[in-house]
Amino acid sequence: MTLPLILFYVLIAVVCIQIIYYLSFLFVFGLKPVETQLKKQIPISVIICAKNEAKNLKKNLPFIIGQAYSNFEIVLVNDSSFDDTLEVMEEYSALNSNIKIVDVKASEAFWGNKKYALTLGIKASKHDFLVFTDADCVPNSKHWLAHLSEKFSNEKSIVLGYGAYAKKKFSPLNKLIRFETVMTALQYFSYAQLGLTYMGVGRNLAYRKELFFNNSGFNNHMSIKSGDDDLFINEVANASNTALCFTKESFTVSEPKSSYRSWILQKRRHISTASFYKLKHKLLLGLFYITQFLFWSLTPALLFLGFKWQWVVALISLRGITQWLSFGFSAKKLNETDLIVFAPILEVFLIITQLNIFVTNLIFKPKHWK
């Protein structure tokens, strides 16, 4: 058996695995209808942990305060900032009785650890239902809290939302960042729908305080600087306690990084936590990324070797159509339709970026959340 033939058989296996993944994503999330049934508004505590975010708080906090929601408080956690973050918080607190400030002083034992600051914010909150977002996030509507809260029930104690990034014209980097965000959301929404919840994003996440304390908070991974969102959810989520919220009104929107280097640093922190996921999640995610990499490695190799290009093109087309349908329906649902036509190119650049981050993280470990 020749080497090209062996590579071709491997490619067939890779394409079959990729198609299974994308068809699963398509049917459990891409084609899932958006459901909205606003209920009685339960008491909510919105928790925002900020470190040197004075500018973003001035810009975005009014949109949190202005939520069309009858019963909520805002817990602002100042994580040892050295800019005017605390002063901005105090200005808004003086004008709004539902704002509470938690001023976290620098601690040698917990220096640079967002989880410590968040824990103090959670302890200070007065309601059992907690909503988390970041200082650089703005709700997509005045009904953000209403849409998230209606997903809570006696069975559902976790709500996963979508944290989008603002669109920038004529910016390839912006498209790459948003493509990665959609691909991540496509996976964590799909896996959650299949009863395999493995993460959430801190830009738009909600869970019950009771769940937090019953799990001893972040104690099991307090020494890991990142993972206040994904590692916690990976630990406490099960097949029945997680709900999804992906109505456009429930999105949050953040300003994306403006340079490739700063985005890479951000992604290095995020990806560094994946090695601490449950084994079943690491296997599922690892197989998806490995087969992605193999697909984009084997197809040009076989074409270069001149191996029955008609068969190779047929496999490329089959996988491409399946991926396009899965990504396309999901991108439409997440209001990212401008990315659909660029999906194959963006996927190649994302795979190269992720490989670079993986290798870099093996050598140098990210140390701080900011």
TrEMBL record:
Keywords of the record, alphabetical order, are: Glycosyltransferase, Membrane, Transferase, Transmembrane, Transmembrane helix
Q: Which InterPro entries match?
A: Glyco_trans_2-like, Nucleotide-diphossugar_trans
Signal peptide limits = none
Reply yes or no: does the keyword Chaperone apply.
Answer: no
Q: Where are the transmembrane segments?
A: 6-31, 283-303, 339-364
What Enzyme Commission number(s) appear in the record? 2.4.-.-
Q: Does the keyword Transmembrane apply?
A: yes
Q: Which residues form the Glycosyltransferase 2-like domain?
A: 45-212
Q: Gene3D superfamilies under this entry?
A: Spore Coat Polysaccharide Biosynthesis Protein SpsA, Chain A
The similarity annotation says: Belongs to the glycosyltransferase 2 family.
Protein's name in the database: Glycosyltransferase
> Native species of this protein?
Winogradskyella bathintestinalis
